[in-house]
Write a structure and sequence with these properties.
The chain is an all-alpha fold and about 190 residues long. Helices cover about 70% and strands about 0% of the residues. α5 packs across α6 and α6 packs across α7. The longest helix is centred in the last third of the chain and has 35 residues.
Length: about 190
């Protein structure tokens, strides 16, 4: 990043604007300003977040906070979207709501015990069995860690699913085009 930016990205609060639209805007501004490295983009992303989006960023573990791609994925999943629904958002909101409820219901317990109660409840209600298994294997100690693990695993499984479906379409197209050849050869 050199010199003064030609254009500043709009701020993002996560309250009234779609993450998808804002992220596209941010990437376009990054191109205009020649912010080629993830480090440059991360610096600007940090200062353009406000409100709920900034709060989400501040709660992220340090290793995630310092990676542009991870941070974008988690902020997308944790902020509200008008007209868009993300499973990640539901997961994060559920985790936050559990902590609030446990804090209110068991205010006389130590903080660590309240966190454990909320975590146990969160883990018990992960809908996808593959994700639930993967999150439990990571042995998260906080609800926040479980939320991050859930979002990461769901993103990974969704990307794998997309690649498998794309590969299946290519195999089916090849098999149709060469209908005289065995399908097995089309997959090799």
């Amino acid at each position: 990043m050199s010199g003064k930016p030609l254009l500043l990205p709009e701020v993002f609060s996560g309250e009234s604007q779609s993450w998808t639209e804002w992220a596209e805007h941010f990437e376009n501004v990054a191109t205009v300003n020649k912010w080629d490295s993830d480090e440059d983009k991360l610096k600007w992303l940090k200062v353009r977040l406000t409100g709920k989006a900034r709060t989400v960023f501040q709660k992220l573990p340090a290793d995630v906070r310092n990676k542009y791609a991870c941070k974008k994925a988690v902020v997308r999943g944790r902020t509200s979207h008008q007209g868009e629904t993300y499973r990640d958002e539901d997961c994060a909101s559920y985790g936050d709501a559990l902590r609030v409820l446990v804090d209110k219901a068991y205010s006389d317990l130590e903080e660590k015990a309240r966190e454990r109660l909320a975590l146990t409840q969160f883990l018990a209600h992960i809908g996808n069995p593959q994700v639930a298994f993967g999150v439990r294997q990571k042995r998260p100690e906080t609800v926040e860690a479980a939320v991050v693990a859930t979002i990461e695993l769901e993103s990974y499984l969704n990307s794998c699913s997309s690649r498998v479906q794309g590969g299946a379409t290519a195999v089916a197209s090849a098999a149709t085009a060469n209908s005289t050849e065995p399908i097995l050869e089309a997959t090799e």
